[in-house]
Amino acid sequence: MLEIKNLHVDLEGEDKTILKGVDLTVEAGKVHAIMGPNGSGKSTLSYVLSGRDGYRVTEGSATLDGKSLLDMETEERAAAGLFLAFQYPVEIPGVGNMTFLRTAVNAQRKARGQDEISASDFLKMVREKAKALEIDADMLKRPVNVGFSGGEKKRNEILQMAVLEPRMCILDETDSGLDVDAMKLVASGVNSLRDAGRGFLVITHYQRLLDHIVPDVVHIMSQGRIIKSGGPDLALEVEKNGYADLKAEVA
Length: 251
Ligand code: ADP
Ligand code: MG
Ligand code: MG
Known about the structure:
By secondary structure, the protein is an alpha/beta fold. The protein has nine helices and twelve strands. Helices cover about 40% and strands about 30% of the residues. The structure holds adenosine-5'-diphosphate and magnesium ion (2 copies).
């Protein structure tokens, strides 16, 4: 489903290569995790997949269901079924959460050549999903993420995910920031959305997130490459022995 082949990425305008040949396939129904030391290129991978400016792909490909993501605008990526969650969700003053969600759903529908969802159908759908995720109605009315606690932002992100029903979710939760409660929230949200038709790529610096989201496959990234892949045990091994041993072993 998500297929990344030999992906090489430079920093735009600089002679610096960050990703040096990433190969990764995430199948439908599977949760893949990427771990790795700071600065290894994990976030860069998620930024490039999201279409953020500032990076230049020099080689390789990234496709979702056979369609090249790298040629798409951000909205097209969302329409193709890609969802990206970052550690610090943006605050949008003046835009109510409901309005934001409905705009996102309709943008996705438009890009797919579908009609807009009716106001009543939308309301019904969001209320059902919010209820299932134990999100109170008050949060739906407030401006997007403004004044939300860390936990509320995470809850809101999971709601966005539930509403957009993506094929492929990429979560970059690196470099702390998440307290234990927020981590559990993300994990239970991800677990509730695990589905045979949906894949997840969970990027994390810490093994403990993977106690709650038990991945099918764990990849270790170092210096712009995936240096080792394995089962959930690989995350535990890294937690115990650190990355240095692994790097030495691979070298
Ligand atoms: P990780 O998420 O694994 O910690 P990053 O993808 O954030 O790694 O960073 C990989 C490398 O690229 C680091 O050396 C980082 O300093 C560098 N880098 C990434 N983005 C930028 C940028 N916009 N400007 C300068 N350096 C960058
Ligand atoms: Mg980092
Ligand atoms: Mg990072």
